[in-house]
Specification:
20% of the residues lie in helices and 39% in strands. By secondary structure, it is an alpha+beta fold.
């Protein structure tokens, strides 16, 4: 767990509005990932900076217990061209705490880490929190994921 400063960035991808209530987010975000992978969304994103995938949680109604938007996509140079069916979002960046999860993605690695984060007394701002799936996340059985939480 490290404190870091994140620079402003732009993302293009697909999104869904969901909630953590009654396990809805696990279902919705799983379906979003399935669509992202099965429809080759990564190949359709214009002006990508690289192939790192970001799962971003934003537009919180209040905190993690209320509805929010999940965006699954890649960082882009600009939002000039947003393909039909996709969204483009700009994020301001700011102060973040960087959590690091390592292990088996198929065995709840990410949700287990989030469960720990939700129990922590962090001074969260609920602007945009995100997971980073880079080169070290390519092997789902031994993945390394960064989870960044926006704080004051």
């Amino acid at each position: 767990m490290n404190k870091v400063t994140v620079k402003a960035f732009k993302v293009i991808g697909i999104s869904i509005r969901t909630t953590n209530e009654n396990g809805q987010a696990a279902k919705d975000i799983g379906e979003l990932w399935n669509k992202f992978m099965s429809e080759g969304i990564i190949e359709k994103i214009p002006n990508k900076v690289d192939n790192t995938v970001y799962s971003i949680y934003t537009e919180y109604e209040s905190d993690y217990t209320k509805p929010y938007t999940t965006v699954l996509g890649c960082k882009v140079e600009n939002l000039n061209e947003i393909p039909s069916g996709m969204v483009g979002k700009s994020f301001e960046g700011g102060k973040y705490i960087n959590f690091f999860a390592k292990g088996d993605l198929t065995k709840g690695l990410v949700i287990d880490e989030w469960t720990k984060i939700w129990k922590m007394d962090l001074d969260r701002v609920y602007s945009a929190d995100f997971e980073v799936y880079g080169e070290k996340a390519q092997n789902p059985n031994d993945a390394e994921i960064d989870i960044l939480i926006a704080v004051k």
